[in-house]
Amino acid sequence: xxxxxxxxxxxxxxxxxxxxxxxxxxxxxxxxLTGRVEFVDDVVLPRMLHCAILRSPLPHARITGVDTxxxxxxxxxxxxxxxxxxxxxxxxxxSSPEGWGTHCIAGDKVHYVGEPVAAVAASSxxxxxxxxxxxxxxxxxxxxxxxxxxxxxxxxPRVLDAQETNVMLDRVFTWGDVDGAFADAAHVFQEKxxxxxxxxxxxxxxxxxxxxxxxxxxxxxxxxxxxxxxFGLGRAATFGLPSNKVNIISHPHGGSFGGKGGTRGxxxxxxxxxxxxxxxxxxxxDRGEYLLSGGGQAWxxxxxxxxxxxxxxxxxxxxVGLVDDLGATGEAYGAISAAxxxxxxxxxxxxxxxxxxLKLVATNKLPCGPYRGMGPPPHFFVLEQMMDxxxxxxxxxxxxxxxxxFIPADQFPYTIPSGNEYDSGNYGEVLDQVLALSDYSAMRAxxxxxxxxxxxxxxxxxxxxxxxxxxxxxxxxxxxxxxxVPEGATVNIDILGNATVRVGxxxxxxxxxxxxxxxxxxxxxxxxxxxxxxxxxxxxxPPSFGPGGSRLxxxxxxxxxxxxxxxxxxxARVVAVLMQSEAENIEFMDGKFMLKGAPGAEMTVxxxxxxxxxxxxxxxxxxxxxxxxxHVWTAAGRTPADEQGRAKSYLTAAHAVHIVQVExxxxxxxxxxxxxxxxxxxxxxxxxxxxEGQTEGxxxxxxxxxxxxxxxxxxxxxxxxxxxxxxxxxxxxxxxxIEMVAVVTPSPFTPLGAKGCxxxxxxxxxxxxxxxxxxxxxxxxxxAREVPASPMRLWxxxxxxxxxxxxxxxxx
Amino acid sequence: MKPAPFEYVAPSTIxxxxxxLGQNDPDEVKLMAGGQSLMPLLNMRLSxxxxxxxxxxxxxxxxxxxxxxxxxxxxxTSKRAxxxxxxxxxxxxxxxxxxxxxGHPPIRNRGTVGGSMAQADPASxxxxxxxxxxxxxxxxxxxxxxxxxxxxxFVTFLTTCLEPDExxxxxxxxxxxxxxxxxxxxxxxxxxxxAIVGATATLRLEAGVVVDPRIAVFGVADRALRFSAAxxxxxxQAASDEMIDEVASQAAAAVEDPLEDAHASADYRRHLAxxxxxxxxxxxxxxxxxxxTGA
Lengths: 812, 295
Prior knowledge:
The complex is a heterodimer. Chain A is of the alpha+beta class. Helix content of chain A is 28%, strand content 23%. Chain B is α+β, with helices and mostly antiparallel strands. Chain B has helices at 14-23, 38-43, 79-84, 86-91, 93-100, 105-110, 113-119, 125-133, 150-153, 228-234, 241-254, 266-294, and strands at 7-9, 29-32, 51-54, 64-66, 70-74, 136-141, 144-149, 154-156, 159-160, 167-174, 180-187, 197-206, 209-218, 225-226. In chain B, strands 4-5-10-6-7 form a 5-stranded antiparallel sheet. The interface between A and B is medium-sized, with 30 and 25 residues.
């Protein structure tokens, strides 16, 4: 029998939801704030050893010798592993695109600075680090390539020996008659942009404890792991093990934002464990390792973009050329970030045709991984700058120019040229709300006054889509197979009526355990303290992907409500037998089963659960006597990608408009954000406090992207930003007051009408801040085409523009 | 990120420190004050001393004392203590202003005045302030005590004129002359970061002209720089916009080999030095004018 999952709050079996849709105190916070949850570095196992990793100081070199004898002789050292051990016991990493992975420890050559060349297991991390200094590695340096345009040339040094070229992928995707649109256009605008490499920096880096029994080959890994199920499958593939031999126990961890890669370090600790007879080996990535060679670098991009418009200023075509520098290998799945823009390629606009000229290139830099937003934030940065270039050139207000290009509210569901379907939206309303919130016309008036005084004040208006509830099919063009991302939950009612929900993912900060508690409490008429959420290891848990792709809030809601529905159905049958009636005569509301037309004939959930568990003799023989059910939810109706990558992929399309006011100090290039306003529509807000928290954090990360964060490499591919002295995260002092307003257009396709919202504002913020900066620069006749807009870059633009102006006036 | 092995001692007297210094090769020894620079260097194995002498237990190095000339600050006095001192806020506002520009509260809780002086980081605030205020630094060794003017103290990157067997014990800061104007500004990528460039200045206005201007910048070169030629140019002149612009460009031009890193090129640093010298001179002149009329 098909399970019907409530599509809106009023379909929940309660007179009035008391918890879902409200900001309740998070159930996770006491444990997190007191440090009582068990983070992986708190775990101490019997006979445990500690791992430290020796890393290449060179970006590209042949390894001609590794001498580990002195390290092995150091007191406290149990084992040393090198590339030889990696080749004996593991396979090259799986990668996207396929064939671009290497072993977790370098064999014949190193491909980037920080690549592991050996590792030690010792009695403590300190001893292990002492031992690293005793390992002698002989290198024969090669020329390195740090620039993707150089890397594409045939004469370039080749990064991977196994490949004939450094070009991982070179394809043009065309959706509709793009040439026709540009040929017929009344206006065409074209521009180049640069988005510099940046990335996730969670509070906690990656860490793990690996135990690999050399006899049974059972592999158990404790770790701060974002997607334990996927991580386990990846380890099984790397070590050639049956998937049921690998058990992953993820621990609560201090955030991820995509930066919990960690596979190389984890695989190395596995090799060490096997070498020392299966003893547990702990590897805690330190911040230096994270910044040099961790899972947190992403989006190193060079864009060339063209926009076609008709005579009325309606955008009729979009061409995006992207050269994406993925670093040395495809092991960290940075390629997915180049594919994901297909899910929202044309943003919130009616642009009917589009083209994507995509080149993925290998260089001697750290392999790129995921980062919050997974690729669209740079795409929307360039699209929104193009929208402003067009609006400015046509003399139109940027807000109204966007409005007339918006997909109208009555056209949803709406299929975009790159194939995805947007579920719902009301973009004009979102714009209206933020215009009102910001008092936009007053902002413009104040700007005019400031400009008259010669101050560089700018107002940016940017609009973007947050694709929510990801599916693998979105990434088909970079070789990710398949469709369908399941999330499961088991709900169990005990003999006293208390509920336990078992899931397959750990605490990461987003508050999903609170959401589960809200859902179960409202479904069964419980209080939050009647509900407990526990996490299982991957060999015990229901199918689970965990957090990622702005998906888990929606998916876990579907899984939990599905399991609740199954319990209700089972209990209704039990109640019908006990009341000598039929199941269809039993109603369920506010935690009570009631016999229709018989006032007073009712049982609570606790009574039914107690009866089922204590008196199975009273139950019909075909009923499983446990008041427990598992439901596995996955987005319905996802389609395989066609040859141009088109698919119904991400299930929801949240929308936002941000309005930002900045002032640039013309002498120093420093940017001050004076106001930050936004409106966003992510459908039903299951926990508004959580949505606001996600939004605030994501705005601040977006400001980091626009103004601060950048991994710098020199021309020889040496990294220059290897500590927090040089890699600049925004702090609380860089966070402006954020004014927000919500618009709610429920999704017709999801549980309770919620849309994915976890990645959120970073889709819009870098675009909005850069639009504001360029609005401020406009009177000088210059514009910033590179993020981050560092003070030095802006100072150069401003002084060059002023020099040009004074040259011209001298010529007059 | 664990330090290489080292020995650690924490003597309770300055004579104990000198005795241990005398018994060891001074080049193998690091003195630790608040540890805010040394600890990361140790953990990254960029500094590998055989012996670390922790000054944290040494008596009588943590004080702020008013004297007839100004204030004397013990080398182990925390920046937080300077920040919290009513005396400093009232009598030495430039020192106070530069103190709260250093890092964040947890850094100021541990970081010390003497530690910043002896570390001589080119981007550190205190050395530049010591230059414009005419501070004197007192060092002791087994050979005795000596007093070093700030102008002679800072040599180059992370290097002072202290001998390996000397320990900095106190910093003497004269009170600003009556009716002085002062200013302190810096450009940093984020609040609390080491400045890309900072500048500070003091001056007086008498009969409409500038008297005894002192100008210093930090973050620009291998050490905090004082600009004597620019100071001479300004002396005896009205603090007009044109004059200040000229002094600022002369100061910027006087910087030899500006630093260059991932955040700021040499050109940008030189440019900022000029901008900030102009800004601190204007601000100091306004304060001096207010002090003359208001007093």
